[in-house]
Write a structure and sequence with these properties.
The chain has 245 residues and is of the alpha+beta class. The protein contains nine helices and ten strands. The chain has two domains: 2-72, Orthogonal Bundle (Arc Repressor Mutant, subunit A); 78-237, Chorismate lyase (3-Layer(aba) Sandwich). The protein is 31% helix and 34% strand. It has a six-stranded antiparallel sheet, with helices on both faces. Helix 7 (156-163) packs across helix 8 (166-172). The protein starts with a helix and ends in an 8-residue tail after the last strand.
Length: 245
């Protein structure tokens, strides 16, 4: 038992340092104590300290500079609030972040049972699947797919490119307001393709968010599945019921 505890000591050190970085105790640019000092602080062996530092360097939290030491990295920490009126640009613009997007592709396909149930359509009904990559200050933060009823939103992708925001696209269809009907989210390891799309280390986790947007009368508009970089975005939940449009 004691051997197992010692073997996993690096995980405890990594978690402690990561928490101090996320809480701002260790600020971006700050130099970490030397290895002997960390050994003394954490009452651990050199191997445990080295591995903890190496793992945090993999996730981008630390930068190991030969001959200078180990420094806390300045990671983008975007705040994204999920609420009844979740809006990407409003979330990011308030933080002075330039939001841009890249269209990855558009498909017209038959809805699976899962997609159909989320859009309240019949299984096999035609839907438009629009895939996009979202960047904040030219750094990838998410990518995913949004599904719409093809009969109602056949030109959604073209209008999205032309108008620049989801709200404006819906307005072009005569929909002046919409709300978030449901949101589900969970974290998991990133796949090789997801790490490549987000330009992050393969050991960085991702957060998967599935959501349904609806009109004020409850009519479902869209179902989306988006992969977010957990290292670059911090999520919070708004319980006030309104975030603005």
């Amino acid at each position: 038992m004691n051997v197992a505890i010692k073997r996993d000591r690096w995980r405890e050190i990594r978690a402690t340092l990561e928490k101090e970085i996320m809480d701002g105790v260790l600020e971006p640019g700050m130099k970490l104590p030397t290895e002997p000092e960390l050994v003394h602080i954490h009452q651990a062996g050199r191997h445990s300290v080295r591995r903890a530092i190496a793992e945090l360097a993999k996730t981008g939290h630390l930068s190991i500079e030969q001959g200078r030491g180990t420094f806390v990295q300045s990671l983008p920490k975007l705040e994204y609030t999920i609420g009844q009126r979740t809006r990407l640009r409003r979330n990011m613009a308030s933080q002075g972040v330039d939001v841009s997007g890249i269209m990855l592709g558009v498909d017209r396909l038959e809805a699976t049972a899962r997609i159909a149930s989320q859009l309240k359509l019949d299984t096999g009904a035609e839907v438009i699947a629009t895939r996009r990559l979202t960047l904040a200050d030219d750094v990838p933060v998410s990518f995913g797919t949004i599904y719409h009823d093809a009969e109602r939103f056949l030109s959604y992708a073209e209008r999205r490119e032309a108008l620049g925001s989801v709200s404006q696209v819906y307005a072009s269809y005569g929909i002046e307001d919409y709300v978030r009907a449901s949101t589900q989210m969970y974290a998991r390891p990133a796949s090789a393709d997801e790490a490549r799309q987000l330009r992050q280390h393969s050991d960085m986790p991702v957060i998967v968010i599935s959501a349904v947007d609806a009109e004020l009368d409850g009519t479902h508009l869209a179902f989306s599945e988006v992969i977010w970089s957990a290292a670059r975005v911090r999520f919070s939940v708004d319980t006030s019921g309104d975030q603005g449009s």
